[in-house]
Amino acid sequence: MGLTDNGKIGTICNRITSRNLLIVAFVFLGLLSFSLLITVIVQARKNHETNHETNNNELCLTRGCISAATHQLRSIDNTVLSNLCTDFYTYACGNWIKTHPIQSFDVERTILGDIIDRRNFEIERLLDAPISRTNERSWEYKLKTYYTECLDDYARVPNSGTYMIGLIKDNATIDGWFMFDNSVENASQVALLKNQTLYQQLSHIHGDFGALAIFGIRTRFDENDTSIKRLEFFPAGLTMEVNDYVGTDSVSMSRLAALQLYIVEVVTLLAREAGINDTNLSDRAFIVANDVFTVEKFLAEIFAVQSIMMSLIPLFARMIHNYLRWRLISTYIDDLSYEYVHAHRLYLNAYYGHALHTSNDVYCTREVIRRFPLAIQHLYTMNVTRYSNAITTVQTIFDSLKNGFKEYINENAKWMVDEETKNIAREKIDKLTAAIGYATIASDDASLDNYYEKFFVNNDLHLENAYHYHNFHRWSLSNSLQNPNILDHWDYFETRTSRLFDYIALFNRLFVIASGMHEPLVNSEWPWPVNMGSIGVLLAQKLFASIDGPDGRTHLPNGTRYDWWQSPTIIGYNNSRNCITDYYVRDLKTLTYNINGAEIQIPLAGEPFSPTTLRHIGALRFAYNTLMKTNDIKSFKMPGTNFTSQQTFFLAYAQTQCYQREELLQLIRTQLGVYDERTALNAALIHMPEFAQAFQCQSKENQCFD
Description:
Elements: H1 12-51, H2 63-75, H3 88-99, E1 108-110, H4 111-128, H5 139-151, H6 153-156, H7 160-169, H8 178-181, H9 198-208, E2 215-222, E3 225-235, H10 242-246, H11 250-273, H12 281-303, H13 317-331, H14 338-352, H15 360-371, H16 373-383, H17 388-411, H18 419-431, E4 433-437, H19 445-451, H20 462-482, H21 490-493, E5 501-504, E6 509-513, H22 528-548, H23 567-588, E7 590-595, E8 598-603, H24 610-630, H25 645-654, E9 659-661, H26 663-671, H27 677-686, H28 689-695
Parallel strand pairs: 4-6
Antiparallel strand pairs: 1-9, 2-3, 5-6, 7-8
Helix pairs in contact: 1-2, 4-15, 4-16, 5-15, 9-13, 11-12, 11-14, 12-13, 17-18, 17-22, 17-24, 22-24, 22-25, 23-24, 24-27
Transmembrane segments: 21-42
Cofactor: Zn(2+)
GO biological process, one term: protein processing
């Protein structure tokens, strides 16, 4: 749902128009790809005829090689070929940057982000398709009905606010609100007319309706026994980030002002929809906004020291009362009618400093993916079957990397000095496993029907469906405690920020979601150097984290928490870390950003980013060595680029790092020690003699990480 140019609410026609534009865009890209394909073939034939007598390396003209070359040529910028040795990123991604602008609703664009966006677009198409299993008990009926009701703005407009008002007024649960109760004539505008105990309020607002207030609840595997799960409480219940409450800078102050106006607008809308229009309404709305901020600021100061063991006694009962009801409303704000959704979007625009333009179909797609990952994975995989070969390819890559990783520890990891540390590293690699695909339960209709048995939907009120989801989520937590392995540990993976692949130290396992395994990460027809350079290196980084990451180096092969690095290895690693830090501080020195026409230089500290660079170097090195020992076509050259297998490997990896990002956002990230992909890639490659040899560049004297 959105506003048209004349200010009216968009209809289904807007969505059809948008999709037509996307179809036109895909047709255009198809024509462009076809023209590139012809160019690759012609250029390849010319190179083959010219070099056949003088070059032993034969051009690879298989369908996979031509497809991979077409993909690579789309992103390459040959105008900067002369700077390839010092800025390989710009050579590899220059044309991608020119042809992939940041979307109006976003602040960055990345290769992995584009993969997820394309997958989500495909999922949206599948959600819009007719229901094939129409039994109301089926997972498909429940999933698509939930999505359809979320999408149907007109069904939400007349009654969702009324339903929320009914929840708040229900004497058996919330039992009223200061905004409503104190509207009667001569009522106090300071004190509560009726109140519940803190326990009563939390049991209903937090327990019954799923609103995160003060704390959240989740399940985690017990680190001492992964066959059981435990409940875990974590700090939660803030509208803004912690630093926004305690900061005094202009950004924090503007965000505070936006929050207060947002709360006032929403609670006033709800009160008026409840038929309340007394002369003190505006005053009470501002009191609620101030109460909410006071409580959230108090919580933020507690959360800043990472503790939720505190007393709420210093806060007035009215403040707690208003805060908890605000948490209920804000939990369901995007499930209410348009006026509330619009107010929330305006607040987000003010909070982030730019318009996000989130449409209702994007929101609903994102919500069903987040809330029903098992059903979504099954919907996707049963309708999109072209990735089965890719899964086999990824498994082959993992098996090869696992062997290559152990060889790296034995032959190349000079920083890992002592044998005791090396022995544990070898044991971890030996016991390392991979889960490629998704939870077994997500591949069977009957199993999913049973899993979603406790989830109820109706086809006339989305807010009620959202409420039913929270009841289902509460049941799923209980079910998770009783059946800890029902999701094959994928539920643990879902808590990580990486949605395509990640390493979980507790299980010493690499998780790879099959639905993300396609171009440009992997193609079963592509030559080995391309697949190993793209998905291979990305997975190698996760595997390397099994021995050097904060979790990897503090978990033994069986998942027991124990810091297993010995002093000689710690010293060796820190020497490499200091070397990389010196490179950032002394050689690179600064990064420059253009903010509103002004050039701003940010000095580089090298920390805490240097371990990331070391991981990139280590992963590239053992993936490269794996390639050289398993590549059956070492003598080939790629059509179009005329690159060798070694050169193609580095190009393939570089093109997984292409990105666009708002300059201000990256400036802030750099100040926090998170450097951009261009800086990270070039820093890793300049410290690799393998790269220098492949492209005949001058090798850096101090490689830092052997």
